[in-house]
């Protein structure tokens, strides 16, 4: 039996576009003599639809699109969609997979395990499926699962759920497992997925087909990497990463085991940011982007990402120097723009800044210059970038990294102005790592941008480390406290000076009000500062 793994990039709510994409892949699968095409979780609606499913018209449109699609599919298929729960009790909807054959929906299989952690909130909308039964297809019993159904065990190996749909399907005689998935990218997750699939396949003694969504939807990036493992848990086929793909595998004659290439963290992160940026703009109706170029490493990497994602002709870099901007920073910004071939302009802000200082001279009289005057520069730059965005219909990209966002080393209504923060989940040291990877075949980002001490250049001879601990220590505490959720004593015990730990943790906790007002950023780590991390603004934190 030949199965086609259709790894597609749907757009939330684009029923006609998604159906057309499904049909195109189905026709290709049919041409390659597949017996069954498997599509991704909620492929008709796009994942995640979130509160849109609470609108009856949205769900009905998806169901109508599914049935119209069924009449045109040239081969049997499993397609993810939102179905109704007509039992009269429980949540009104299911996260489901439709088995389509001979022009109509033959059976519907519901997701049993509904994630309610990190960015997931499916129990808000869906009723869990009851005990699943295998699907009989071509004299074979197929166990149909949807994404989280494979993830019963959490990272601590403590079961998240009382029920195990995989074991139930095996008990029902399943001879192969199929999983329709929409599993977001995070660094290192591909290895976790492979291990998970291998464990299930070995435990049950059956091959496993895993089909994952690809593309960006809002903050989430889906990396694809659909795969097949044999009954011994060996990887035998894998689709491409970060792009659509159709992988056809014969379950009766599986290929020999593969040895996957190790993940290069910098490359994976870069490809994820590029894909997320491209899809965010295009799915929101934008074709071009504008960003400020300071000559520093963060804006340089963001510009490289934007040029790769959108095409150099669709990116405008703007230098906005003040009297505190060094000549080497101005030169680095210009050189980067020339090397990338993006559009570039210089708009000095000195006269505007001075006008603000003159306006505020009377109310500020008798007080020494401080952050108020410094942040005026960032806010002037934000106003100018947003004006260019409005005038030319370009999305403004912010250029801050995760370390800055964590510690509040950013200015509300200044450098935080924009429509998307592509690198806001990349810690500073990873930004450097990716920049070096970008330059692996030749210098694109000026070496001086990597070498010079980071600086906001809002006052004479300023560096970030005048205010913050060294970034390697910031990132170490950030990773331990936010991603690994360790307490202060555990971080100190790991070898970080207590004063540094307390300083960074205090900054993280005190800056929640800024992050609450930040623009959307792409999730790239296991714990991003987005809607998956729900921390109060007004609070008291023990020990801080």
The gist of it:
The chain is an alpha/beta fold. 36% of the residues lie in helices and 17% in strands. It folds into two domains: 2-263, Carbon-nitrogen hydrolase (Nitrilase/N-carbamoyl-D-aminoacid amidohydrolase), CATH 3.60.110.10; 268-466 and 511-516, Rossmann fold.
Explain what this protein looks like in three dimensions.
The protein is of the alpha/beta class and 544 residues long. It has 2 domains: 2-263, Nitrilase/N-carbamoyl-D-aminoacid amidohydrolase, CATH 3.60.110; 268-466 and 511-516, HUPs (Rossmann fold). It has 16 helices and 18 strands. It has helices spanning 15-31, 56-70, 165-171, 189-204, 265-283, 297-310, 327-340, 350-360, 371-392, 402-407, 428-438, 447-451, 471-483, 488-493, 498-510, 512-516; strands spanning 2-7, 36-38, 77-84, 93-101, 104-110, 135-137, 140-146, 176-181, 208-212, 214-217, 220-223, 227-229, 235-238, 245-250, 289-292, 315-319, 343-346, 395-396. A 6-stranded mixed β-sheet has the order 5-4-3-2-1-14, with helices on one face. α6 packs across α11 (428-438) and α8 (350-360) crosses α9 (371-392). The protein is elongated. The chain starts with a strand and ends in a 28-residue tail after the last helix. The relative contact order is 0.09.
């Amino acid at each position: 039996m030949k199965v086609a793994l259709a790894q597609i990039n749907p757009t939330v709510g684009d029923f006609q576009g998604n159906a057309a994409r499904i049909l195109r892949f189905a026709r290709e699968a049919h041409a390659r003599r597949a017996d069954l095409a498997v599509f991704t979780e909620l492929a008709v609606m796009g994942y995640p639809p979130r509160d849109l499913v609470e609108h009856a018209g949205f769900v009905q449109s998806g169901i109508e699109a599914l049935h119209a699609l069924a009449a045109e599919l040239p081969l049997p298929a499993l397609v993810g969609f939102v179905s109704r729960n007509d039992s009269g009790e429980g949540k009104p909807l299911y996260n489901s997979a439709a088995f389509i054959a001979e022009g109509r929906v033959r059976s519907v299989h519901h997701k049993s395990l509904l994630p309610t952690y990190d960015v997931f909130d499916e129990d808000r909308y869906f009723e869990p499926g009851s005990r699943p039964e295998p699907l009989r297809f071509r004299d074979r019993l197929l166990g149909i699962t949807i994404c989280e159904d494979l993830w019963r065990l959490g990272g601590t190996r403590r079961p998240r759920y009382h029920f195990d749909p995989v074991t139930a399907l095996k008990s029902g005689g399943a001879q192969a497992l199929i999983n329709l998935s929409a599993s977001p990218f995070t660094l290192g997750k591909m290895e976790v997925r492979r291990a998970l699939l291998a464990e299930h396949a070995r435990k049950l003694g059956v091959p496993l087909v895993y089909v994952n969504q690809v593309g960006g939807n809002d903050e989430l990036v889906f990396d694809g990497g659909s795969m097949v493992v044999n009954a011994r848990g060996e990887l035998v086929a894998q689709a491409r990463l970060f792009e659509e793909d159709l992988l056809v595998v014969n379950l009766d004659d599986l290929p020999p085991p593969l040895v996957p290439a190790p993940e290069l963290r910098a490359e994976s992160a870069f490809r994820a940011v590029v894909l997320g940026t491209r899809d965010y703009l295009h799915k929101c109706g934008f074709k071009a982007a504008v960003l400020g170029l300071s000559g520093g490493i963060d804006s340089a990497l963001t510009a490289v990402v934007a040029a790769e994602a959108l095409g150099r002709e669709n990116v405008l870099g703007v230098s906005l120097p003040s009297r505190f901007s060094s000549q080497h920073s101005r030169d680095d910004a210009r050189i980067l723009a020339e090397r990338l071939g993006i559009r570039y302009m210089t708009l000095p802000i000195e006269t505007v800044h001075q006008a603000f200082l003159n306006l505020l001279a009377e109310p500020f009289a008798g007080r020494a210059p401080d952050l108020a005057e410094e942040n005026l520069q960032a806010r002037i730059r934000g106003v100018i970038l947003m004006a260019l965005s409005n005038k030319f219909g370009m999305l403004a990209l912010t250029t801050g990294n995760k370390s800055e966002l964590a510690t509040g080393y950013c200015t509300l209504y200044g450098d935080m102005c924009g429509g998307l923060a592509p690198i806001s989940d990349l810690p500073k040291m990873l930004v450097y790592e990716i920049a070096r990877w970008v330059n692996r075949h030749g210098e694109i980002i000026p070496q001086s941008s990597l070498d010079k001490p980071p600086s906001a250049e809002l006052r004479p001879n300023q560096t970030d480390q005048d205010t913050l601990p060294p970034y390697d220590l910031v990132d170490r505490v950030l990773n331990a406290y936010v991603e690994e959720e360790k307490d202060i004593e555990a971080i100190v015990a790991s070898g970080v000076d207590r004063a540094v730990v307390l300083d960074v943790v205090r900054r993280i906790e005190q800056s929640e009000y800024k992050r609450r007002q930040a623009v959307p950023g792409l999730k790239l780590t296991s714990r991003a500062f987005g809607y998956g991390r729900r921390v109060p603004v007004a609070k008291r934190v023990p020990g801080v």
